[in-house]
């Protein structure tokens, strides 16, 4: 449940950050947005357990 809540929270942050004008964003803002999107992708990606993977 915490993973879903964190994913929703990060998705809202990404949407708010991407709605800003491009000229108003610095290079550091862009890098932070990329990191947040990567973490969001890891939270949303389906995970396989060791038993499913290896037998």
Protein architecture, described:
With 55 residues, this protein is mostly helical. It has three helices and no strands. Helix 1 packs antiparallel against helix 2. The model has no long low-confidence stretch (mean pLDDT 79).
Write the layout of secondary structure elements.
Layout: H1 2-19, H2 27-44, H3 50-54
Parts with pLDDT < 50 across at least 5 consecutive residues? none
From the structure provided, what is the oligomeric state, counting identical versus distinct chains? Answer: single chain
Provide the gyration radius in Å.
15 Å
Order of SSEs: HHH
Work out the helix count. 3
Give a quick account of the main beta sheet: strands, pairing sense, barrel closure: none
Overall shape? elongated
Averaged pLDDT: 79
* Span of the ends, CA to CA: 27 Å
What's the β-strand tally?
A: 0
Beta-strand portion reads under 5%
| Secondary structure: helix percent | over 70%
Structural class: mainly alpha
């Amino acid at each position: 449940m915490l993973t879903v809540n964190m994913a929703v929270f990060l998705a809202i942050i990404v949407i708010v950050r991407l709605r800003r004008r491009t000229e108003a964003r610095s290079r550091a803002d862009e890098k932070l947005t990329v990191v947040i999107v990567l973490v969001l992708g890891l939270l949303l990606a389906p995970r396989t357990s060791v038993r499913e993977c290896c037998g």
